[in-house]
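pasting for ref. prot 1 ->
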Amino acid sequence: MLTTVDVDQIRNFTQGKFMPHTQLKDNESVAANSADRYDNSSVEQSDIKAVRPDSITNFLQWSSSACAIAGGVMLASKTEVSGYGFIFLALSSSQMLAASIRKQDTTMIVYSGSVFTLVDCLGIYRWILK
């Protein structure tokens, strides 16, 4: 169970602040020492939402993983339908891009939006359209 100080230390750590441990006097409880200095009601709903993605984002991430696995297996099988694995990989990249946009993750937006999508489109062109 987290004490009041633990919650405050976690909040300050996530905000990039350093909170040194406080020395307590004899017979002084942690909760009594911190109750008047900290207000635990300041946890924003957006802080909680950032930790737990919504159901659409969660679905996009899982679906992206499934499509990436299916596409990879198809490419690795080296059969006459292997080229169609790039369609699954492109679908995976687009789902990852959509989930990254919903999470406002700039690094993954650039990564999935440029690198993966371009490589998958090149693979579709070279293996299927040509």
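and prot 2 ->
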Amino acid sequence: MSGLYGQLAEVTGIGQAWLWTAALVFLRVGAALFLMPAFGDQAVPQRIRLILALAFTAVVAPAVSDSMAEVPGTLRPAAVEVLVGLAIGIGMRLFIFALQVAASIIAQVSSLSQLFGGSTPEPQPAIGNLLTMASLALAVLAGLHVKAASLLILSYRVLPAGRFPAAADMADWGLLQIVHSFSLAFALAAPFVIGSVIYNVALGVVAIAHFSNRKGWTRKPSKLPSQTASISGTATTMSKSVAAVSAGAPTSVTESCGMALLMMPSATL
């Protein structure tokens, strides 16, 4: 490996130590970018991801080169950098997971869970795809690339290069991130859940009131025969008027229908 770096140093005019530093930074940045929201989505082509990884490496490497001077040139630091980058990417990816959980809750309470949309490996509700795309667009417009570069630079203070983090610390950090993710999901879906509860309660009150009115109306069966007779008589009168008009009688259809309606009792109206 030292021979390869020596040849690259001769061709590029850059020192071997700096090339090793850039390679380690590229491993961490590339692994994090693989799972990073927006930049690591499947809709982004592989070549664009590679260019983005090189661009982030060019930004991060000069800022952390001093802290990586004593990293040995072996494979162990390279493997550590890949694992640390994946951990950072998973932590950022949990934000998308929170949006998907919130979208699933919103779809369930709004009866839109059967409408799927988007070209994702797992089918999601249409509102989930809309919420995710809108959030990513706002995040990119708000400077996601700047925040991501700052996070990668600051990660070398918490997780130094070439040093494997403690398993207990990583477990606690991962558990805390998952808790925050679910808390964010329920906070985003809370207004929709509250609105759905209010809507269903109001719908139940309206149904009870409607049932009570129908029950009060059915308590007066004595009027039903007279109302039925009046309606049948009105229908007979209207049919006779229409037959008379068709036979050439001078009475107009409008007058016939008006007379029939005047003969109808007010109770039937």
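The radius of gyration is 37 Å.
Residues 5 and 19 are 7 Å apart (CA to CA).
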